[in-house]
Input
Amino acid sequence: MKHLLSINDLSKVDAISILDTAQELARVSDGPMKKLPTLRGRTIVNLFAEDSTRTRISFEAAAKRLSADVINFSSKGSSISKGESLKDTAQTLQAMGADAVIIRHSASGAAQRLADSKWMSGSVINAGDGTHEHPSQALLDAFTIRKHLSKGADDLTGLRVAIVGDVLHSRVARSNVLLLSKLGAQVVLVAPPTLLPVGVESWPCQISYDLDEVIANVDAIMMLRIQLERMSEMYFPNAREYSRYFGLNSDRIRAMKAGAIVMHPGPMNRGLEITADAADGARSVIVEQVANGVSIRMAILYLLLAGNQEFAETGVSS
Amino acid sequence: MKNSNYLLTGLTLPNGSKSDIAISDGKITQIAPNLSAAEGFTKVDLSGSVALPGLVDLHTHLREPGKEDAETVLSGSMAAAKGGFVAVSAMANTSPVADTAGVVEQVFALGQSAGFVDVFPIGAVTQGLNGEKLAEIGAMADSRAKVRVFSDDGSCVFDPLVMRRALEYVKKFDGVIAQHAQDPRLTQGAQMNEGEISSRIGLKGWPAVAEEAIIARDILLADHVQSRLHICHLTTAGGVDIIRWAKARGISVTAEVTPHHLLLTDESALSYDPIFKVNPPLRTQKDVEALREGLADGTIDIVATDHAPHPAEAKECEWQEAAFGMLGLESALSIINQTMVATGLMNWESVADRMSYAPAKIARYVQHGQVLTVGAAANITIINPALTYRVDRDLVASRSRNTPFHGMDLQGAVTATFFRGHPTFLNGKLTSVHQGTSERAGN
Output
C-alpha cells in the first residue's frame, strides 16, 4: 500500500494493524525518549490548502517524532492563494523531492487526483478532502473507542456508536461509518433529514432523526461540528432549535449508559452541538482523541513509508 | 477541377436493402444494386457498410468566437465531418454571446468558409444568457443565418414569464425554444447526479427533480401558448415519462439525448476524473435504460451530441474546479451503434430518423434530413458497423482532447461522409468543399 486516500483502501486486517502499531508507538511517546529514527532523511510535506490547526499540527508532530523532515505548505501566503493549480503545486513538490504529501483540501477527491495523476510519485495521505473522507480522523476515533470499550478485543464487535449532526457535509462521518462498521461496530447516524445525504440508505449504518431515542443505547457518541452558515442555507431554522433536538447537554449525558463515552473531532461549537459540561465532563474523551491522533498518524507514516511490504505483512516492530 | 462523381458500392440502405449509390454534381443520381461505374466516376468500395442520410447535430459547442483555444468553427466542423455529420448547430454561449444578428451571421459565415458542414447558429433566448430580457430574436431569425432554434444552453431560462414570452414570440417565424432544463436553485454548486454515489464520494448532488420540474413546467407553458418546445439533453427516467405523457396529450414538445448519457453512468465519478464531469450530469443505469427505451420508441426524438470542447487545464484539476462538458461529435454514431443498434433496440431506419430526419425537421433545416433517393442532395454518412476501433484522444480532429471515451473500444466506425456530393471525410482524410484544407485525421 502506497497511499491512504479512503477507508476503502484498508482491509479490516490493515486497519487493525494501524491501530496496533499506534498502540506500540504510543508507548514510545510515553517514554523519556520520544523520538524514533525511523524516517530520518525522508521529506514529508504538509500540503494544507484549507485551514486546519489540529490535523496539521498532529501530522507534523507525528512526522517529527519519526525524525522526518517536515515542510509545511499552507494556503495562506503561498502559491495556492495566488491561484496555482493543484497540478503545478504537485509538480513543484515532486521537484523538491517529497517522499510523502499529506493533503488537506476543500475539494472532494483532491487527494485521489494527486495520487492517480502522474504529477508526483510520492505517497499521498488524505488529511481531509472536501466532504468526502478524513481517514486518519476515523482511525484515531476507532483507536480511542477500542482503548476504552473493546475489553481487550482487537476490533469493535458488539459496540454501538452514534454519530450526531451534519452528516451531509462531514468527511469525518463518512470515514467513520466505513471504518467502524468494518471493525464490527454498529453505527447509527442521528441528524435532521436535511443534513443526511440523499443515498445515505446505501451506507453500512442505521439512520435516526431522534437523538433521545438513540442515546440510551450507545457505547460511544460522536458529535459533529455544526457550521453556522448552515442556518442561512436553511438546513434548520435556528441554533436554538438545533441544540434542543440534536445538541448534547447534561440531561442527555445522564441518559447515556454506564461507561459510554463522548467524542468530538473538533473544533467544537460550545453551546451549539455540545454544552460545556458535556464537553468537559467525565464521559468526555475529546482531549484524549487529540493525543491519540499523533500516535495514529505516526503509525500511518510508519507503515506507508518505513517498509515496502503490504500492511498485512508488516508486523508491529517494537 | 476535382472529380465530383462517385459510385459508392456494396452499401446497405437504412431500410435494409442492398444498393449502390451514384453521386454527381452534389446530388444522388442513381440508387440501385449493381450499378456499373460510368466514365469519370470514382468508384468507392464500401462493402459491409451502411449508408445513412447525412447526420444533423442540434447541439454543438464550437466555442468561436471567444474560446478559440478550445475549438474553432473550422476545427469543430472537421470533427463533425469525421463523425459523419453534414450539419451542426452552434450553441449561443460564445463570447460575445450569439444574441444579435451580427454574431450569428459571423458564425454562419465562418461555417461557410470552413466548408465541411453547414453550421447553423442557435440564437440566445435572452441577452447575454442572463435569463432576464429577450435577445434580438426577430433580427436573428431575419438575418442571413435564418436562425430558427433559440437556446440559453448552459443556463436555464428559469423565469417562467421570460420562458412564456420566448415561446410565444418565436411562433411568428415557426421557431423553437430549446430549453436547458435545470432549476438553478436546486442545483447550486451541484457537481454530479444526486444519489448513492454522490453521497459516498462527497460531491454535491444534482437531483433529477431539478431537471424534471423545469421540463414539466415548460411543457405546460408550451401547451398553453401553443408553441414549440425542445428539451435539450434529457437525462432522467422521470423526464422520459413526462415527455411521453406530453406527447400522448398532443403537446408540441421534442427532446434530445446525448450519446454519453446513453452509455455512461454516475459511477464514472468514483475516479474523481473530471473528464466525466458534464452538465447535465451522468445519471444511473436505470436512467440509461429509460433513455435507451425512450429513444427507441420515439419518445425522445433525436440524438444530439452536446459536443463541448475544453482546453486541457479545464480538466487537469480537482473535480469541483473543472469545467462541465465532453467531446461528442466524432464518437456519436459509434456509440449509437453500440448502445442502440448492436443491442437490437433500434434499426438503421430509426437511426436515420433520430440523427438526420428528425433533427432537421425540428430545426427547419430544409435541405437536410432527406431520404436517400434519386434527386436528393448527396448528404450521406457511411458507417461500417463491424469495424471496432480504440478511441485515442491524441488523434481527434477537434482542437480539444476531452473525450471520456479515451482508451475505450467502440463498435462501428464512420468511414466516409459526403456533404453535397463532396467527400468531406474519405479514406481517413478530411477535405473541405473548398478543397483548400486537407488534413490527415486519425481513427
